[in-house]
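Dear support,

We are seeing what looks like truncated structure output for some complexes. This example has four components. We would appreciate it if you could run it in full and send us the complete token output so we can diff it against ours.
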Amino acid sequence: MAVRAARELRDGEVVFVGIGLPNLACNLARATHAPNLVLIYESGAVGAVPDRLPVSIGDPALVTGSLGVATMADVFQFYLQGGRIEVGFLGRAQIDRYGNINSTVIGSYEHPKVRLPGSGGACEIAIHAKRVIIVAPLSPRTFPENVDFITSPGQNGKYGSREQLHLPGAGPVRVVTDMGILAPARSDGELELVAIYPGVDEKEARSRAGWPLRCAPNLEVLPPPTSEELRLLRDVLDTDHLYIGKREA
Amino acid sequence: MAVRAARELRDGEVVFVGIGLPNLACNLARATHAPNLVLIYESGAVGAVPDRLPVSIGDPALVTGSLGVATMADVFQFYLQGGRIEVGFLGRAQIDRYGNINSTVIGSYEHPKVRLPGSGGACEIAIHAKRVIIVAPLSPRTFPENVDFITSPGQNGKYGSREQLHLPGAGPVRVVTDMGILAPARSDGELELVAIYPGVDEKEARSRAGWPLRCAPNLEVLPPPTSEELRLLRDVLDTDHLYIGKREA
Amino acid sequence: MTSAASKVTTMREAIADLVHDGDSLVIEGFTHLICFAAAHEIIRQRRRDLTLCRLTPDLIYDQMIAAGCASKLVFSWAGNPGVGSLHALRRAVEKGQPAPLALEEYSHFGLVARLSAGAARLPFWLLRDYDGSDLPAANPLIRSVDCPYTGTKLATVPALNPDVTIVHAQRADASGNTQIWGLYGVQKEAAFAAKRVIVVVEEIVGEGVIRGDPNRTVIPSIVVDAVVCEPWGAHPSYAQGYYDRDNRFYVEWEDISRDEASLERWLKDFVYGVDGRAGYMQLLGAQRQDRLRAKPLISSGVNYGF
Amino acid sequence: MTSAASKVTTMREAIADLVHDGDSLVIEGFTHLICFAAAHEIIRQRRRDLTLCRLTPDLIYDQMIAAGCASKLVFSWAGNPGVGSLHALRRAVEKGQPAPLALEEYSHFGLVARLSAGAARLPFWLLRDYDGSDLPAANPLIRSVDCPYTGTKLATVPALNPDVTIVHAQRADASGNTQIWGLYGVQKEAAFAAKRVIVVVEEIVGEGVIRGDPNRTVIPSIVVDAVVCEPWGAHPSYAQGYYDRDNRFYVEWEDISRDEASLERWLKDFVYGVDGRAGYMQLLGAQRQDRLRAKPLISSGVNYGF
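Here is the complete output from our reference environment:
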């Protein structure tokens, strides 16, 4: 997933980075095809070049040697709401068939079965980033037909489409999973399978969503990670294997 | 006027300073009875201790050795609108019987006889500073009954009283002139003569306003400048006599 | 140079004087400069019924909630970053232990905006946010206004003006002119928004140090009520240039906090059992301090001359 | 370290590429860091019909108005600070010479708020201001909204998103990461609000200098389109740490500008007669430069280590 997420980034783009897999993907992209990626962290570090894998989004290694430090008011008002962020990463929790994300509660809001951390910056990233990449493993639990709570708006839903809501960003345009990639259909914004990793069974992938997952007319088979990408991940970027297992990439 | 304006300041107060006479008054106060005055300039210099008399409100000498530098957004939002400024100085141009100030136009707005500089920060200083001190020589031209344009609201006027308008600051509470001091009457906010300098004729002073200037019941006679105050002004603070003549103080 | 009145006091006195039962309290710092030393003193002085406000409640509010200080939490992301849940917070919400806890929830931008409005003495702040989200349905304080120019609907959040804000910083002078480098978080907005402000620093420096580099000043003395010198006061959070984040402690907290009894034991040892930060650091041990102490990487100066 | 694409160009090319007839233009800088070099190049390239926006039009817009570049002025305080009037501006307004000039007037706070809204991509900004003042009667773009919490009426101003903002600063790297110390003015807001941004600096420095002290960065490269190195580019304004404000020139401007012919002569000599800032400074003379050159007063560094 890290390799695939990295490949979704173009050189020179301005990326709003969270911790964990997205951070790893960004650093892999910087080390390979996108050396001029500008990494902006929610915490205010701009143009960070961390010399260790940051464990927290506000790690001191993100500041040392960075290009600038912004107050959080500036991060949210001038960078994110200001339309300066090209790519935002979101992930985990629940994602529904239109890419709406729940990171608030499982169950009802007043009496939740599980209390999740809440929005953080996820709601505004989903609204303002020019495009959003979601990274999450494909399973019926993570991809229910409807989420229990919409923390971050996707392509469409009970409040209307992004167009009807005049949301400035394009929303989730790619969902990178462990089986392949989902993307919203142009017609109605419903996520459909557009690409799979080599060796992944299309039918099995489609059975992993909580709704009848459509398949795009020309399903792409993605090229495998190169040995260089794997070497960078395992031996340089995540030597402690904090985010990737020995086998996963 | 500089001596009298200085005496209006209490030690430890936070003062929003303009250039010219107010700046001189603040520095005189710092050198005499109010060493802990905190000077904040519209330009963003906080706690300035200029080692030369600043010619402009943004003089580099206001930054060097200051306690802090604020963006102008912070100066207006967090310091002034935030209610952190205790004293604001305003002056020059036209002042009416309720302390409304005009620094915009003489004549009509569309076809002015004289185009003045405009508000700058004067409108918001008049609204937000906890109290405003006006410094201006007393003459019918400077003190008309009604100003041609209200740039900065006083105690009362065509839009209603400060109370009716819910203005946060107390507005102009002292008007320091070359004859004595005017202050608003508690009843209706009209400026009246409350104190005169030694040797000034009450009747002459009262004839210098553009309206029948009332006199407070117990008119105070102000103590003259001390020789120390005069020495500081002439020999230390304004050695080039930029703001005070040989005889004026 | 003026030498303004000193506001230097001890942590014990600052908390005793300025933090009262029932207060709304902000201890900010986004990952960086989170003042655990103040939280521990509040726990020791057994403050009750506090409304705790913070973007990320983090371990600091988890500890205060476990100790029974809080009756309400205003937040935008509640977790142990990179590790998991805040277990004391979950027990309070799910089981009412040790006391019930009301929640008021925003996004990060929403809470930043609330503090900005408070600092600017505006009753609310504008943002383009929340369209298509369930957050306004969950929190009736998220409202909207119509733009008087375009007619567009914009989201609003109400001002937050806490009774007390506590800010940790690298250094301040005795009157409270406070300098921060590294991540700023919302320390400035939180300080300007508050009725009372306590600044806790790694070092109290002479006014000359502040005046030597005025562009580093983030909080002016005029909003500060008390200045406390408390080295290592942000541990397990960090202070850039002084000590690193103790990531290991964040991981350990998962085990300490999952069980009520072990959390109680930890509070007994590390909070109630010491009389201040010096005692806490001694208990933590010299080895840990050595591991976390910052290496020198000094920036170059700039010219303030004219 | 990444080495991002260089945006370094000459003043001539930056203005030719990025400033067009009919544009709205902001050249900010409050007393400090006013980019006269850019204004002179715009005059030389004979741009017309510009909407000039600035808190204090100052000598810089007086010169551009005299040269016939402007058709509209958006401002909040129009004078020669500490000296008197802006005579070219007055001639344009009062007599339509050399071209009529429309005025749109705010207070300082109002214009700061307009740029803040533009930078934040909001259609307007809120402020507690203008009650009891005639300013809203004079400018129908000053409006109001009702607070959805308290019912209070608050003033509003519309966002300002200029076509171009030109910022002067002490230093930047080749991709436009820009550092400022001394007075900040509204340089940051003006840059974020603009569609296109030109940064003009005293020195272009290596990326390592910027990365050595990231807290001094005010404008990030991602909003910058061109970087121009132009030493003394702010004269007669100043650059803290590089050269002092030329107060004497501000006084001299009173005489130069009071008479149309003498102003024309000055433009002929100091603007049209030179091909750039180097020529202008040569004309100004070495003595003047020596008088204004900043003395060294270097700040101490801080520790960015962890």
